[in-house]
Structures
1.
Amino acid sequence: GDVSVYAMQVALYVLGYYTGELDGSYGSGSEAAVRNFQRKQKNVEVDGVMGPQTWPLMAAQARNREFVRSG
């Protein structure tokens, strides 16, 4: 699978949006998880695409969640 898709899946998993296999493949489960994440954000288009608006928000939230868990 693709490393960037894998990183996205891990971030979505940490945030509770993705429950599928962490395989680096952008399938229907990944797209649904991205859409669900986007629906919870303000001023982000819900398109299922991990674009320049979505990725920074997701990455920051996942880092914060991991910090809270490990801290």
2.
Amino acid sequence: RDLMRETLLTIAEMQDEDGLWAEAQVAYEKALPLCQNVEAASYVRYRLSWAYFRKGDIARAQQEISQALFD
């Protein structure tokens, strides 16, 4: 479970750096249910919020960053 989450995060971060925000979003969304603690989930939600923001989906970006900060 941890290995799969870390693999998906690495892929998502590489895609994010390459400007492939839709693909990064998908990888972050797949990694999120694999998070077993609040810190990991908050980090994934933080990165996911940036993917939404970069795609222009401000409402979803705000929702994710709120969950990252306050869950």
